[in-house]
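User: Predict the complex.
Assistant: Input components as received:
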Amino acid sequence: MMETCSKHPTYKAIGKPRSMCAACWAIWDAKEAERKRIEAEENEVSTMCYHPATDEGLRELAWNIATHRVFTNRHCYNSDEMLMVFPILQMMKLCDRKWIAANPPGLVWEFNAKACPAGVNGLPVFLSARFLSTEDLPKMEAYLKEAQETQQRFMKTGLTGGIPVDDCELEPIPGTGPCGDFYES
Ligand SMILES: [Zn+2]
């Protein structure tokens, strides 16, 4: 007597692990492949790490933030907004997502120039992200403060090279001034 599928008694079993017809076996095989994929994903070990940034790199990042060339998670109002801006954080490999959850970065950032052509709710969307470690963050913040002070000094001073205009002892050149009057000789 022909061995039949345990679910479909009118179909011939094809002699795979259990008494299954070809259709049942295809479903079982797909489920088994998915189970193995999940198992492998859960056992995978992340190779992520935060490379210590160079002093020069931190200075550059600070200046790029001060001059609005870089978008960071701190420009986001909350974590939902951060995930909208950096959807890559949800698309990473499971082991990498777990590693980041266990080792939260100090800063998530990317160059504005790398934003997708279309944003969401007035915010940019990036398909990549860069990380700054919590160790490097305070140093970068100090450089950022410095950069912002430089910008403010620039706004306050004119031709006097960093000395506030009111304290400057130089006689103003006739026809010129810190307000930006046009001068012609
Ligand atoms: Zn069957």
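The chain has two domains: 1-43, 55-156.
Let me know if you want any component modeled separately.
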